[in-house]
C-alpha cells in the first residue's frame, strides 16, 4: 500500500472535517426546521409577541324608560416612546393603500397627524419628546394626551405609528348626580363596587376582558400589521330599574324641602305601583351623589329605605284593623266604648294622644281619631299568634328582596317572645320596626285586593347579546281577602277625606285614602327618645288604587312633623299623577260611620 504524502494526509483530514461539519449542521437544521420547529416558533413568538389586555366596559344602570343612571365613559391615555421616535433617523415604514407600497413617515409628520386628532400642534408633541429625552436620554414613556374618547382612539390606532401606545382609563359616570344615588350606589377609587345596585348587581354589570397581541422588533418597536386579537372583550350587561328618573328627582326635591321646612333629622319618601309592587321612586333626604362621595354626608350614603327600619307607629293600626275584619271579629262600623286611658292588666298602661271621655267610636272612627286605646281594645279580641301571623302575611319581619345588596327584615319578635306591654303596643305600631319599603308593601296589599306582591327595584339584567334574565321576585301572598281589603280601603278613604290632616292631602278630582303615624324611637339605651317620627301612608285613586305612597319625617325641631309628612305625600301624589297621566277618580266617596259626634 503506497504511503500518502504529507499534503495528501492534510487534504484527507480536511475532507473528513468538512464532511463531519456538514453532517452536524444538516442534523441540526433538520432538528430546527422539522423536529423542534413548533416549540422554537412558539418560544420565539413569546419573546417578540406583546400581549395587550382589551378592557371590557362595565354595564349601564338604567331607569324604567332606559334613561341612563350609571354608565362607563370610554377614555384612553395616549402615550409614546420618546427614544423610539428617533430610531432609523426618525423614520418608520407604513403601507400606503393609495400608492400600494410602503412609504417612509418622519417623526415630524407623525406628530402632525397625531396633533390633528388630539388638538395639539406638532411643535407641542415635539416638545413632549424633547423634554422627556432631555431628562432621560433613554426615556421610553411620555404622555401625549390624557383621556381621549373612543373615536379619537380608533383614529389614532389607524395611523399605525409603531412608537405610539394607548392605555384604557375607563371612568364610571353618573350623569344625574344625586338623583337615585341612594339606589344606584357607588364604587371606590379602585373601581370596586361598594353600595347600592352597583354592588348587588355586580355579576351582571362586570364584563370579561379580551386580549390582543402585536409583534415587536429587536428595537422594541411594534411591527406594522402585526396586531392579532386573540380574545374579544365582552362588555357587562345592562341593569334595568323600576324607578322613573324624573319622578325620582321630584320625590327627592319634595322630601328635602319638607325636611328643611321643619328642621328634621331625616326624611324618606317611597312611591310604589299598587298593581305590580314596583318601586317607581325611593327618595331620601340629602341623597348621596355617586360621583362625589366625599362631598356626601357619610351617614346618608346607604339606601336607608331598605336598611334602616324604625317603629312605624299608627300607620300599623290599619294592619290591625285588617286582621280584625279578615278574622270576622270586627267590621268597619263595629262600635267600641273607648276611654282615653286603659290598663287591661297589671303593669300594662297606655293612653291616647289626647284627653277625652269614654266615646263610642266605630273601628273606622278609631282609625280616624288614631286611638291607641280603641285599636288595642278591639285588637285584643284576636289572640297574639293570630295577630303575629297577620303581620307576617303583610311582609313584616321578613327582609325584602327588591334587588339591593342588604335589605333589613326589621324587628318582629315571635308572639311567644312578646312581653305583656308589647303584646298590645304592636297593635299600634310600637314594639316592632319596619323599613319604609316594608310599610309600603303592606299598604300595597290593601290597595291590590289583599294580594301582596313582593316589592321590586330591579327589572332584570340584559347581557351583551341582548338576552334578559329577570330576578326571582318571590311569590304573591294573599294577606287578607279581597272583601277585607275593600272594606279597609273604604275606612282609609274616610280617614283621608275627613281626618285631621285631610286639608293637607286633598287633591281635587282624586279620591285619597291614608293613615297618619306618630311613633317614638329607641334612644339606644333601653328607653325612648322624647321626639317622634311622623308618617303618612296612603293610596290613590281610591276607586281603583294605582299607587301607594309612604312618607316619614323624623325628629323635627322647628315645625309640625305630621304636616310635613302629609304634605310630602300630597306633593308626591301630584307628581305621580303628572308622570303617569293618571285620570281623575270615578264614582263618589261614601263616608263610613265613625261614632262619637259622627
From TrEMBL:
Any one GO molecular function term: penicillin binding
Protein name, as recorded: Penicillin-binding protein PbpB
Keyword Transmembrane helix: yes
Subcellular compartments: Membrane
GO cellular component terms attached to this protein's record: plasma membrane
Pfam families hit by this protein: PBP_dimer, Transpeptidase
InterPro entries: Beta-lactam/transpept, PBP_dimer, PCN-bd_Tpept
Keywords: Membrane, Transmembrane, Transmembrane helix
UniProt similarity note: Belongs to the transpeptidase family.
Domain Penicillin-binding protein transpeptidase: 268-566
Regions crossing the membrane: 12-30
GO terms, biological process: cell wall organization
The species this protein was found in: Leucobacter soli
Residue ranges annotated for the Penicillin-binding protein dimerisation domain, each copy included: 54-221
Amino acid at each position: 500500500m503506497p504511503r500518502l504524502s504529507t499534503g495528501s494526509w492534510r487534504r484527507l483530514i480536511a475532507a473528513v472535517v468538512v464532511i463531519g461539519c456538514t453532517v452536524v449542521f444538516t442534523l441540526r437544521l433538520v432538528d430546527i426546521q422539522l423536529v423542534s420547529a413548533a416549540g422554537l416558533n412558539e418560544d420565539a413568538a413569546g419573546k417578540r409577541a406583546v400581549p395587550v389586555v382589551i378592557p371590557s366596559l362595565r354595564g349601564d344602570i338604567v331607569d324604567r324608560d332606559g334613561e341612563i343612571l350609571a354608565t362607563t365613559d370610554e377614555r384612553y391615555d395616549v402615550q409614546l416612546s420618546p427614544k423610539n421616535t428617533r430610531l432609523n433617523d426618525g423614520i418608520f415604514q407604513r403601507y400606503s393603500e393609495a400608492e400600494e407600497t410602503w412609504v417612509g413617515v418622519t417623526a415630524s409628520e407623525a406628530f402632525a397627524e397625531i396633533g390633528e386628532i388630539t388638538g395639539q400642534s406638532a411643535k407641542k408633541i415635539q416638545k413632549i419628546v424633547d423634554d422627556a429625552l432631555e431628562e432621560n436620554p433613554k426615556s421610553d414613556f411620555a404622555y401625549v394626551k390624557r383621556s381621549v374618547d373612543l373615536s379619537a382612539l380608533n383614529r389614532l390606532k389607524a395611523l399605525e405609528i409603531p412608537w405610539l401606545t394607548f392605555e384604557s382609563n375607563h371612568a364610571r359616570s353618573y350623569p344625574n348626580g344625586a338623583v337615585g344615588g341612594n339606589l344606584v350606589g357607588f364604587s371606590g377609587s379602585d373601581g370596586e363596587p361598594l353600595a347600592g345596585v352597583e354592588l348587588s348587581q355586580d355579576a351582571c354589570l362586570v364584563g370579561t376582558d379580551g386580549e390582543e397581541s402585536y409583534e415587536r422588533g429587536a428595537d422594541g418597536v411594534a411591527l406594522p400589521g402585526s396586531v392579532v386579537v386573540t380574545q374579544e372583550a365582552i362588555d357587562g350587561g345592562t341593569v334595568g330599574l323600576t324607578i322613573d328618573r324624573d319622578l325620582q328627582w321630584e320625590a327627592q326635591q319634595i322630601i328635602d324641602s319638607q325636611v328643611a321646612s321643619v328642621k328634621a333629622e331625616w326624611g324618606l319618601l317611597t312611591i310604589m305601583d299598587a298593581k305590580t309592587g314596583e318601586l317607581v321612586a325611593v327618595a331620601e333626604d340629602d341623597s348621596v351623589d355617586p360621583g362625589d362621595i366625599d362631598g356626601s354626608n357619610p351617614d346618608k350614603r346607604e339606601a336607608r329605605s331598605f336598611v334602616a327600619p324604625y317603629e312605624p307607629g299608627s300607620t300599623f293600626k290599619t294592619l290591625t284593623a285588617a286582621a280584625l275584619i279578615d278574622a270576622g271579629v270586627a267590621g268597619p262600623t263595629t262600635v267600641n266604648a273607648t276611654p282615653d286611658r286603659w290598663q287591661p292588666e297589671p303593669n300594662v298602661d297606655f293612653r291616647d294622644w289626647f284627653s277625652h271621655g269614654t266615646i263610642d267610636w266605630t273601628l273606622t272612627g278609631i282609625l280616624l281619631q288614631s286611638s291607641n286605646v280603641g285599636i288595642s281594645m278591639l285588637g285584643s279580641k284576636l289572640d297574639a299568634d293570630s295577630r303575629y301571623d297577620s303581620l307576617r302575611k303583610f311582609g313584616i319581619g321578613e327582609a325584602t328582596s327588591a334587588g339591593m345588596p342588604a335589605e333589613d327584615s326589621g324587628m318582629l319578635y315571635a308572639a311567644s317572645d312578646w312581653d305583656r306591654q308589647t303584646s298590645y303596643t304592636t297593635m299600634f305600631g310600637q314594639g316592632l320596626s319596619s323599613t319604609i319599603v316594608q310599610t309600603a308593601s303592606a299598604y300595597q296589599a290593601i290597595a291590590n285586593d289583599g294580594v301582596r306582591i313582593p316589592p321590586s327595584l330591579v327589572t332584570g339584567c340584559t347581557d351583551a347579546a341582548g338576552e334578559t334574565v329577570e330576578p326571582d321576585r318571590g311569590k304573591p301572598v294573599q294577606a287578607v281577602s279581597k272583601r277585607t281589603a275593600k272594606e279597609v280601603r273604604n275606612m282609609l278613604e274616610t280617614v283621608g277625606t275627613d281626618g285631621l290632616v285631610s286639608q293637607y292631602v286633598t287633591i281635587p278630582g282624586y279620591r285619597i285614602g291614608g293613615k297618619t303615624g306618630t311613633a317614638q324611637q329607641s334612644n339606644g339605651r333601653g328607653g325612648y327618645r322624647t321626639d317622634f317620627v311622623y308618617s303618612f301612608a296612603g293610596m290613590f285613586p281610591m276607586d281603583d288604587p294605582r299607587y301607594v305612597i309612604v312618607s316619614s319625617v323624623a325628629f323635627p325641631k322647628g315645625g309640625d312633623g305630621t304636616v310635613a309628612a302629609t304634605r310630602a305625600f300630597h306633593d308626591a301624589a301630584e307628581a305621580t299623577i303628572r308622570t303617569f297621566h293618571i285620570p281623575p277618580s270615578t264614582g263618589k266617596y261614601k263616608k263610613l260611620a265613625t261614632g262619637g259626634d259622627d
